[in-house]
Amino acid sequence: MITDKSGELAAKTHEIDRLAGEIHEANVSNLILVHGGGSFGHPSAERYAIKDGYKEESQKIGFSETHHFMTVLNGLFMDSLIMHRVPAVSVTPSSCMITEKGRVKQFEDAPLVTLLRMGFTPVLYGDVVFDTNLGFTVLSGDQLISTLAIRFNAERIIIGVDEDGVYTADPKLEKTAKMLEYLKLEELKKLQSKLGKPTACDVTGGMFGKLAELVPAVEKKIPVTIVNATKPGFVRMALEGETVKGTKIEKE
Amino acid sequence: MITDKSGELAAKTHEIDRLAGEIHEANVSNLILVHGGGSFGHPSAERYAIKDGYKEESQKIGFSETHHFMTVLNGLFMDSLIMHRVPAVSVTPSSCMITEKGRVKQFEDAPLVTLLRMGFTPVLYGDVVFDTNLGFTVLSGDQLISTLAIRFNAERIIIGVDEDGVYTADPKLEKTAKMLEYLKLEELKKLQSKLGKPTACDVTGGMFGKLAELVPAVEKKIPVTIVNATKPGFVRMALEGETVKGTKIEKE
Question: Which residues of A touch B108 (CB under 8 A)?
Fold first, then answer.
C-alpha cells in the first residue's frame, strides 16, 4: 500500500513516511523489511512479460526498466527510513539471488547475515531476477518474505495490506465477504482456491499470491499477522506485539 | 566527474546524460560500467569514518546514509542509461560482496555473469560494504574496476576522469606538471609515490588511489586508457577503440 496501484510510478510518500515513523517508534531488533512493487514494478513487468521469462531481445530493456523502477521506489522508502534514523540498508535481490523456475535457488546471504548481526535493518523488495530455467523472471516480495522467514527462522511475520485482513472472498468484489480473524493452516489452504485472481495490477497475485507464498512459512510454525497498514498505528502496534485487528494465521 | 565535488549530493545531470548517450552510441558489447561516489558517497563516508571500520554505534546511520546516497547517484545514472535504451542493470556491491581488510574477498558473481551472457550492461559503483575484519568499510569504484577486469579477463579498461590524463604531478597544484601519454607498468609504480594524496573530497584517494588499484590489472596485461570524460565524444571514441588524447598504460 505504499503506492497507488491505479496510477503508474505513483508513490504514496505520506504513507511511506508514516510507516517509516512507525517502524522507528516500534524499535524492533532483528527486523527484516520487505516491500512489493505496486505501481512501480508491476506495470512495466507486465508490459514486457518479464515473469514468463526471456523470449525476445525487446524484453531486455523491460527487465532493465522494471529493476530500475523498483530501486526508485525502494529509494523513496530508504529516504524516509533513514530520515527517521532507522539504520536501514537496502539489499538488492537481483544482485544476490538466482531463481529456478521462479523459486529462489541461489542466495548469497552473507551481507544480510552481517547486517542482522550488526543490528542494521535490511530492506528487500520484489525485483526482477535471473532464472536458471527461464532466463529471467519476477521474484515477488511475498516469496521473499516466506523465504527469508524460513531461512532465518523468524519469530513472526507481519504483513501490512490495504484491507483489514483476509476475507472469505475478495471484499472489493463481494459485499458479503467476511473477514477472518483467525486462520489455521488447513483453512488457509482451502481458502486459497476460493480467493481467485486479483483485480488490480499485480503480476504476482495480490492476496491470493500472498497466501500461497505464506503456506511454507506457516508450515514451519512461523505465525503470521496480516494488518491494515493504512490505519495509523496498526503496523507499529503489530511490531510491538500488541493485539491489533487483523488476521492471524498459525499452523494449528 | 558525474558529480560536483565542491558540493554535496550535487550531480552533474547534463554530463550524466551526455555520457549515457555516448555509451549508447558506442554500442559496445560485454561492457561493465563502474562509477564512483563523488559528492554523494564521499562526504558522508568521511563524516562517519566508514573506511576505518566499525568503532561505535553512531556510525551505523552513516553506513546506511552513505549506501543510500550511492544508490541515489546510481539511480540518476540508471535513469539516463535506460532513457538512452542501454539495457543497463545495476548490481549493488554491498549486496553481493564482502571484503577482508578492505579487499574484495567474497563475491557472488552469478547475477553479473548472467547479465553479461544475456547481453545486458551491468553497472556497479563505489559502495560501503561489510568487512570480515573491520566490520564494514568503503569499497571504491577503482578497486571494483580492477577486480572485475581481472575476474572477467577484460580486453581493456577505460577510465573517464576530469583531467586530460595522468600527470607527472597534480596538475591542479603544480603548473609545471606534464601529461604522460604513455606509461609502462614500471613507470606507473614509480609515479604512484610521487602523486601524493588528493585535494578534493575523495575518501578513496583520487588519481593516486586509481593508479594504485590499476597495478594488478596492468600486471595481468589488461591495457588501461585514461581519458578526459568532460570532453564530449572522448568516452565514446575510447569505447569504440579510436585513438583519443589521454594516458595509455600497458605492462611493457
Answer: 95-96, 106, 108
